[in-house]
């Protein structure tokens, strides 16, 4: 039986917009490899359901720290 000792927070799009201060379309451009604004260092979203994605908060925080 596996037990996870650490917990993580999933950020939905609404929280990403607030946390990063960028638009929804900017986030989608950063995660789209076909976009000229694609950012391979941007945290990868995780699929939460058929039409829902989220991001691990710690990965987002690390990405923000790396920008500084």
Write the layout of secondary structure elements.
Elements lengths: L9 E2 L1 H8 L3 H8 L14 E4 L2 E5 H11 L1
Antiparallel strand pairs: 1-3, 2-3
- The helical percent reads 25-40%
Question: Strands of the largest sheet, in order across it?
Answer: 1-3-2
Number of domains: 1
What is the terminal-to-terminal distance?
41 Å
List SSEs in N-to-C order: EHHEEH
Strand content: 15-25%
Mean pLDDT comes to: 92
* General shape: globular
Instruction: Count up the helices.
Output: 3
Number of strands: 3
Q: Which structural class matches the secondary elements?
A: alpha+beta
The low-confidence runs, each spanning 5 or more residues with pLDDT under 50, are none
For the report, how would you describe the main beta sheet?
A: 3 strands, antiparallel
How big is the Rg?
13 Å
Concise structural overview:
The chain is α+β, with helices and mostly antiparallel strands and 68 residues long.
Features:
68 residues; 3 strands; 3 helices; alpha+beta; 3-stranded antiparallel beta sheet
Describe the structure.
This protein is α+β, with helices and mostly antiparallel strands. The chain has one domain. Helix content is 40%, strand content 16%. It contains three helices and three strands. A three-stranded antiparallel sheet has the order 1-3-2. Strand 2 and strand 3 form a beta hairpin. The N and C termini lie far apart (41 Å). The mean pLDDT is 92.
């Amino acid at each position: 039986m596996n037990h996870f000792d650490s917990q993580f927070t999933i950020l939905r799009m609404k929280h990403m917009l607030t946390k990063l201060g960028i638009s929804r379309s900017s986030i989608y451009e950063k995660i789209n490899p076909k976009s000229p604004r694609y950012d391979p260092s941007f945290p990868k979203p995780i699929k939460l359901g058929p039409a829902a994605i989220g991001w691990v908060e710690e990965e987002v925080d690390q990405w923000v720290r790396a920008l500084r």
